[in-house]
Amino acid sequence: MTSPSRRRVRAIVRRNLLAQSRDPGHWFLLIVLPLVDGILFGSIGVAFGEGEDPVTFLVTGIMLFHLIWQLTLAGSFGLLEEVWTRNLMNLIATPLTEREFLKALGLVGLIRTAVSITVISLVGVVFYAVAPDSAGWVLVPSIVILLLFGWAISLFVIGMTLQYGDSAEVFSWGTLVLLMPLSGFFYPVDSLPPVLQALAAVIPLTHVFEAVQTGLETGTIAWDQIAIGLLGTIVLFGIVVWFLNRQMRRFRAEGWVTRFT
Amino acid sequence: MDTTGRPPVLHASGLRKRFGETQAVDGVDLEVSPGERVGIVGPNGAGKTTTLLMIMGAIDPDEGTIDLVGQRLPDGRGPAMEHVGFAAGYLPLPDKLTVIETLDFFGSLYGMDTPRETAAVVLDELGISHLADQRVESLSSGQGTLVGFAKAVIHRPRLVVLDEPTASLDPDVAMRVRDRLETMNAEHETTLLLTSHDMREVERLTTRVIFLRAGRIIADGPAGKVVADAGYPDLETMFLAEASRLREESL
Questions:
Q1: Which residues of chain B lie closer than 8 angstroms to A97, CB-CB?
Q2: Which of A58, A86, B138, B226 is least enclosed, having the fewest CB within 10 Å?
Q3: Element (H, E) at B217
């Protein structure tokens, strides 16, 4: 016997998967873009690097970037889809709770992430002989932190969407694009101009990628970098949860729902 | 309590809501008994939609309390909404799902065990079984409204809230929806709470009319009594007179 709450979560997951599977745009984001990114960054590594290390670093970098990005897209598109189809009021008029809705979007995000990571891993293995686990065990804590970070970005975009509607779409893909050059996905942060290096240091992702880089180079786990990345992500997550709660309170208090009817 | 001692489906007391400079709802008290058919009417900006949205917990009142099917909002919103259905003529449904998938989806949200089976029955009752496997995006606006209505009643709610329920329907289909509402009300004692700009529809469908003006209730009772007390021949004339008065005041 499934509880009503679990049925609601399952219904939202199914609705998202059905709607996304029938939208060519989602297939592009989920399959084509990871494929192109894998080939692009793998080939840049081959062209400009010496030996196998740059290729491994770049392919691992783009794989981890998509890990966060797909989760972020699932969360933010999950709500945006309801805004675009003007379905939000229909959902509000059911027993669905905010917690159930977010849980379902998180599950959709994990499914999206698994698909895109598989695509990039296959590109790495087939075209560049790069194993997805080249960085070793450091990937386990790193992936956990990256998922937490990606979900924090999702919740931020959801909070913005509640206030600004579909104008908030830019945050769904733009936030990570903004962070990408600063956090050492594809190159060590000391390649950045000095003033930006200071900024990079306060971004939790930077420390996770430093740890991944150390894993690729030495096969060891840089626990100090992992700890800083985790702590920063937990702080960010706390701030975002506070922000989202505030946005949801304002949504009901200020009648933002009327913007979606 | 109604005359048989049953608790009201809805009890709202002292509702107030302000948006910036606008006092949208200004001290509304509302009690609706099981099986009642209540229409909330009034010119644009009278506070109808804000009142409905507060009743469903989508907007928090600045002041006042709401008890919906025995649950105090906002904390009891989830359990209460299991017994409430909502349909609006102007609201589309998820376009990439088929009709049966849509009803299955909403039935699951209402916590139903086997929504697909009930969905087939509801579609049959509305005479739109042939639409079951069509994508919502391919439906005409009238068909979409009917599916939206099916969505609102799939879980056999105790209260159905309808905002402009027949707005985009042709007269024949609108009559089918009204008939269905009357049957549900008669057979299952489903309570109806609706807003509409079609005063004839309100007169036909409801047994009680609540007339709102500038966020306040100015009349409450059977349609015939409300218009007679106000000195108008019918509800439409009263509505037009109130709308005109409001327009003059705003100038």
A1: 78
A2: B138
A3: strand B216-221
Question: Between B78, B104, B161, which is nearest A97 by CB?
Answer: B78
Rg (CA), chain A: 19
On the question of pLDDT at B156 being above 80, the answer is yes
Q: What is the pLDDT of residues B51-62, one digit of tens each?
A: 999 999 999 999
CA B189 to each of CA B67, B107, B112: distance values in angstroms, whole numbers, following the listed order = 19, 20, 20
**How many angstroms away from the CA of A109 is the closest CA of chain B?**
19
Residues 6 or more apart in contact with residue B129 via CB below 8 angstroms: B120, B123
Please state, in angstroms and rounded to a whole number, the distance separating the CA atoms of residues B5 and A189: 73
A45-52 contact pairs (CB < 8 A, 24+): A45/A128, A46/A128, A52/A129, A52/A130
Chain B residues in contact with chain A using a Cβ-Cβ cutoff of 8 Å: 17, 19, 24, 49-50, 53, 56-60, 74, 77-82, 84-86, 88, 90-97, 101, 104-106, 108-113, 148, 151, 161
CA angle at B166 for the pair B150 and B114, rounded to the nearest 5°: 5
CA-based nearest distance B91→chain A, Å: 7
pLDDT at B94: 84
pLDDT of A138-188, one tens digit each? Answer: 999 999 999 999 999 999 999 999 999 888 888 888 888 888 889 888 888
Distances (CA, A) of A78 to A26, A81, A85, A154: 12, 5, 11, 10
Residue of B nearest to A99 (CA): B78
Q: What angle do CA A82, B112, A100 make, to 5 degrees?
A: 45
First to last CA, chain A: 35
Identify the CA nearest to B10 among candidates B159, B221, B164.
Answer: B159
What are the two backbone dihedrals, phi and then psi, of residue B241, each rounded to the nearest 5 degrees? -65, -40
Burial environment of residue B21 by CB neighbours within 10 A (0 to 12, 13 to 18, 19 or more): exposed
Q: Is A108 exposed, middle or buried (0-12, 13-18, 19+ CB in 10 A)?
A: buried
Give the predicted TM-score (pTM) of the model. Answer: 0.90
